[in-house]
Write a structure and sequence with these properties.
The structure is a single chain. By secondary structure, the chain is an alpha/beta fold. The protein is globular, with a radius of gyration of 23 Å. It has 18 helices and 13 strands. The longest helix is centred in the C-terminal third of the chain and has 18 residues.
Length: 434
Amino acid sequence: MPVRAVAARLLARLMSSSGSLSDGLPEADTTLSDARDRALLRLMLYETIRSYFRRRAMLLLLLDKPIAAAAREVEALILLGLTQLELGIDNEYAVVDASVDAARALGHPQLAGLVNAVLRRVSREPSALHARIGTNDEINTGHPQWLIDRMRADWSTSADQVFDANNAQPPIWLRVHKQRQTRDAVIELLRDAGFEGTVHPNLPDAIRLDNIGDVAGLPGWQDGWFSVQDAAAQCAAQLLDLAPGLSVLDACAAPGGKLAHIAEQEPGLKLLIGLDREGKRLEQTRKSMSRLGLRPTLKHADAVRVSDWWTGVSFDRILLDAPCSGTGVIRRHPDIRLLRRASDVAALVHTQGVLLNALWPLLAPKGRLVYSTCSVIKDENERQIAAFLAKHADARIRPGVPEWFDHCGPFGSQNLPGNCGSDGFFYAVLERDG
């Protein structure tokens, strides 16, 4: 199937909230044998989703009537075409002709003429059409209105910073496997291969790379010398304050980035358990551990159903990387702005609270629980922790960590997207009285 047809099919699923990029891209890759097609697929999809509200406004100007829901793939195909024309991904005739062919490949030959007419009109008069779109919050920021309202309520003047960061191309952060190689050695190896890496001043294992292709093609990847993990996510293992002989639980471990970092940081742990209720993601975690030569205990179970998996021995450290809205990683997962709904937040807040309350009794006296999310919504973060502390007299918080985050308060620290080149993350370090 042509690459534009594959991209349109995946975008149509996102538009109907019946899939995600994380699930759809691996499946799409299996139909595209050429690496250039896979790269084009990502470029078209990511750029179209980042500007979805503006492009859809333009499409509505060009149509006499909306495209039927049964032909949503054709609507997605035209949106992708608008992106290609604006960015100059290919010459105008090639974009139009390839899009018409894709419409036929998708089983909509009766709409091939519509695709041809719309894209040809855009190529003839792009400036005039852009001038007619108008403006509103969604078009100006590239975000759904519910999220715009949340960001302005929670972050006031910093909201525009969040929107701008979400619409920018993020860097790649590597985490060096310190048991296998030093950071300096990996930087030198990458430099010899033509990749210039820079370090993070606060994270000893982090290397930043810009404008690279397939990470799996980098020298040292197959040897397990490093993994991909955002800088802010690398704080989790640091905040656990690991030491030999401790028992550690990663309660929501998949896909395994933080679990692997824990194992790399302290090979002398007495016990390290990675728990997750999603079997498919846990299998991905198992493969990652194999590449890195790590052997934590992996358990397929729901952390809340403690009696199903807990042996009764308390943990010295617990990491709760809680399910969340993902609003801090939109720049890496732009489809969140199409998939997430305002109503999702209350359900997630409830789940986070249930997890905190279920896991707290498993923490040993003088133990430490690190709560983290990749969200920038206060209900999931500082307000969640404030509510927890109000209910647990034996819990106290270590404020102001990590120190380099741009918002540190009495109930945890929030990093907004883009600060120090990293994603939006929240951490609260809770300690249990003896």
